[in-house]
């Protein structure tokens, strides 16, 4: 019996070793294929850039000029030029890892949207954010999003959730304002009363997928849109968008933050065909276009942000714990308000404010993950990351 057991263990160890060997070979081949594809694409775009970038300094293939994220397409009126510009943008962003400074340029734009802390302001000016989400099953997600909005620097954070989620969420934190209205018969009217006081809305964390909750969320998105409020849609809010894309399509103050699964569902719903999962940048551009060029953030090893393609690769860690996406969407809700306010005030020009907000929130989330991981390693949770928001924010945007 013992001998049999030994044999069995040996065989399974061998099988495991074989599996890892084959897997490693597969990953190496995939890396080589991607590198070759990337090089081909860069080369092609480089040639296009040289042909079309009249007025720009000519670029050597090894060191292309550093792009300014502030720059605008030269003549937006011309469709052809616009297309060329997009190719150039793509070329520059594809080359961004070798350029190095790209992230720094966008980070400095994020710095410029952060409102200064002065004694002249009243409570509420730096952001009153609403979270639509929180139901019987999910109380953590809306809490993470709402507390992150506060810790980033928003002044007031409202959670609109179902009745049975409200007491639970209140008990997590006295800092949140929690409205137990999401499943009341007149939920839309109850919540709409608050819209004039809100600077940003985050729809989806812990919302659930019950029809009546999604119906309420839909009506609130429509009414917030009519009031020109920046809207971040995440988690179950994206389930709604997958089934009814028109609810947010074309809204320039809308930001979608899908993880890979959510992205795939959305892509396949809009394109009626399977996604080519080997080229994420292309898929992001395609989906963004299908959604009316709104800002899209595909979260992952790098966060890919359209319009154009920006990639945020601030170093995080290998730890993925539930709720990181809620930290992201909550902080993005505040930053979207700041970015649009800064844009209206003429403080940022030439770059889509939603992209600046998205980049800011992605960098921050990843930096929080990195710092929390240094302290807690494998046991890092989203609560640990939330503890890092203050120091991470200072390090990225206030130094
Ligand atoms: N503590 C809480 O209350 C939390 C609640 N959450 C809520 O839970 C609800 C459902 O969210 P789910 O994300 O589970 O939704 P989905 O049902 O869309 O996710 C399906 C599955 O996809 C997997 N997945 C994610 N990224 C992937 C990738 N790159 N490749 C392969 N698989 C991947 C996830 O592990 C998940 O099990 C939402 O309302 C969400 O807000 C989450 O935010 C996590 C924390
Ligand atoms: N592979 C990765 N490497 C580094 N960072 C990552 C990786 N995947 C995700 N992240 C970071 O975590 C953030 C949230 O992405 P994630 O995929 O965890 O979202 P989510 O599944 O929607 O989260 P939630 O658990 O809140 O629903 C991303 O914006 C990114 O900063």
Question: Could you outline the blueprint of secondary structure elements for this entry?
Answer:
Blueprint (H helix, E strand, L loop, with lengths): L1 H51 L26 H16 L1 H4 L2 H12 L14 E5 L7 H13 L3 E5 L2 H10 L4 E3 L7 H6 L7 E4 L7 H16 L4 E3 L1 H9 L10 E3 L3 H12 L8 H11 L4 E4 L4 E4 L3 E3 L11 H21 L8 H24 L5 H6 L1 H9 L2
Parallel strand pairs: 1-2, 1-4, 2-3, 4-5, 5-6, 6-7
Antiparallel strand pairs: 7-8, 8-9
Helix pairs in contact: 1-2, 4-13, 5-12, 9-10, 10-11, 12-13, 13-15
The structure holds ligand NAX and adenosine-5'-triphosphate.
What does this protein look like?
This protein has 399 residues and is α/β, with parallel strands linked by helices. It has a domain at 122-398: UDP-N-acetylmuramoyl-L-alanine:D-glutamate ligase, CATH 3.40.1190. Helices cover 55% and strands 9% of the residues. It is built from 15 helices and nine strands. It has helices at residues 2-52, 79-94, 96-99, 102-113, 140-152, 163-172, 187-192, 211-226, 235-243, 260-271, 280-290, 324-344, 353-376, 382-387, 389-397, and strands spanning 128-132, 156-160, 177-179, 200-203, 231-233, 254-256, 295-298, 303-306, 310-312. It has a nine-stranded mixed beta sheet, sandwiched between helices. Strand 8 and strand 9 (310-312) form a beta hairpin. The protein is globular, with a radius of gyration of 23 Å. The termini are far apart. The structure holds ligand NAX and adenosine-5'-triphosphate. Adenosine-5'-triphosphate (ATP) binds at residues 235, 259, 299-301, 303, 316, 320, 322-326, 328, 362, 365-366.
């Amino acid at each position: 019996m013992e001998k049999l057991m030994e044999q069995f263990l040996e065989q399974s160890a061998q099988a495991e070793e074989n599996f890892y060997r084959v897997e490693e070979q597969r990953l190496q081949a995939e890396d080589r294929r991607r590198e070759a594809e990337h090089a081909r694409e860069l080369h092609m775009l480089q040639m296009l850039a040289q042909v079309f970038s009249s007025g720009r300094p000519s670029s050597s293939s090894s060191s292309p000029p550093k792009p300014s994220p502030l720059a605008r397409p030269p003549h937006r009126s011309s469709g052809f030029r616009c297309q060329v510009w997009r190719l150039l943008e793509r070329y520059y962003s594809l080359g961004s890892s070798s350029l190095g400074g790209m992230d720094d340029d966008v980070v400095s734009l994020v710095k410029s949207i952060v409102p200064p802390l002065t004694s002249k302001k009243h409570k509420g000016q730096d952001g009153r954010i609403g979270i639509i989400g929180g139901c019987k099953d999910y109380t953590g997600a809306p809490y993470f999003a709402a507390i992150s909005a506060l810790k980033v620097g928003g002044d007031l954070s409202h959670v609109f959730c179902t009745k049975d989620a409200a007491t639970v969420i209140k008990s997590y934190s006295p800092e949140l304002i929690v409205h137990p209205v999401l499943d009341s018969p007149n939920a839309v009217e109850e919540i709409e009363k608050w819209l004039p006081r809100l600077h940003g809305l985050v729809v989806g964390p812990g919302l659930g997928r019950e029809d009546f909750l999604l119906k309420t969320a839909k009506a609130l998105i429509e009414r917030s849109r009519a009031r020109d409020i920046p809207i971040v849609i995440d988690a179950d809010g994206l389930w709604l968008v997958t089934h009814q894309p028109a609810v947010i399509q074309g809204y320039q103050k809308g930001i979608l933050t899908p993880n890979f699964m959510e992205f795939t569902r959305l892509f396949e719903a809009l394109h009626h065909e399977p996604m080519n999962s080997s080229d994420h940048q292309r898929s992001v551009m395609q989906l963004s276009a299908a959604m009316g060029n709104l800002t899209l953030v595909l979260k992952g090893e790098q966060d890919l942000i359209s319009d154009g393609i920006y990639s945020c690769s601030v170093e995080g860690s290998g730890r993925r714990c539930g709720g990181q996406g809620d930290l992201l969407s909550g902080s993005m809700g505040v930053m979207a308000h700041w970015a649009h306010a800064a844009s209206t005030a003429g403080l940022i020009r030439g770059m889509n404010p939603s992209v600046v907000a998205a980049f800011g929130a992605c960098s921050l989330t990843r930096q929080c993950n990195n710092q929390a991981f240094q302290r807690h390693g494998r046991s890092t949770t989203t609560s640990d990351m939330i503890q890092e928001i203050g120091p991470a924010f200072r390090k990225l945007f206030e130094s």
